């Protein structure tokens, strides 16, 4: 049976939110709502990257490694060369693009919720989150707890990190523009 991490986690999160609201009323409500949305986002990311947890575990799952950086570029080129802009090309492109989008919200949260000030720190944090997701996919596949056998893909690390850091930098620029405009008005 495949268990949806998002649904189970959201149910637990909603119970926590109700208890938290009863205890703390409206104290720091905006910050808490943003934090709840962060947990909600993390649950969604785990569900998307694992596809859910299978229990009891399946047998004979063989996870693989893809350790060649930018392999996806050659893959896209070869797909285009052999079949043009067919379904396989666009599906591969779509998956790469979705990996780029996956950790973009993390860049926003690091800027706004956690107030991280260093692009280097953000790069390390986003990379480590991506590495954790890839390791989780590999480990759960190895133990037969993911139905669709995922691989550890170094391209995912690079693309996820690029997306998260790029959005963080955009958020920081927007924050500085807003602060500068506010200072100039007063």
From TrEMBL:
Positions in coiled-coil regions: none
Keyword terms: Membrane, Transmembrane, Transmembrane helix
Signal sequence range: none
InterPro entries found in the cross-reference section: Teicoplanin_resist-assoc (IPR053150), VanZ-like (IPR006976)
Transmembrane segments: 6-22, 34-55, 87-112, 124-145, 157-174
Domain VanZ-like: 38-172
Pfam families recorded: VanZ
Domain of life according to the entry: Bacteria
Name of the molecule in the record: Glycopeptide antibiotics resistance protein
Species, as recorded: Salinibacillus kushneri
């Amino acid at each position: 049976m495949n268990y949806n991490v998002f649904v189970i986690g959201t149910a637990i999160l909603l119970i926590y939110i109700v208890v938290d609201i009863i205890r703390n009323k409206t104290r720091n409500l905006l910050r808490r709502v943003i934090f709840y949305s962060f947990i909600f986002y993390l649950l969604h990311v785990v569900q998307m990257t694992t596809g859910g947890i299978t229990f009891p575990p399946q047998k004979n799952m063989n996870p693989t490694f893809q350790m060649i950086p930018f392999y996806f570029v050659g893959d896209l080129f070869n797909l285009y060369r052999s079949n043009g802009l067919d379904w396989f090309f666009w599906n591969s492109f779509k998956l790469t693009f979705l990996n780029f989008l996956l950790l973009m919200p993390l860049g926003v949260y690091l800027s706004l919720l956690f107030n991280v000030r260093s692009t280097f720190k953000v790069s390390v944090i986003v990379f480590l989150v991506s590495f954790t997701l890839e390791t989780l996919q590999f480990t759960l596949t190895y133990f037969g707890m993911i139905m669709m056998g995922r691989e550890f893909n170094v391209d995912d690390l690079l693309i996820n990190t690029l997306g998260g850091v790029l959005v963080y930098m955009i958020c920081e620029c927007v924050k500085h523009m807003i602060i500068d405009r506010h200072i100039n008005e007063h």
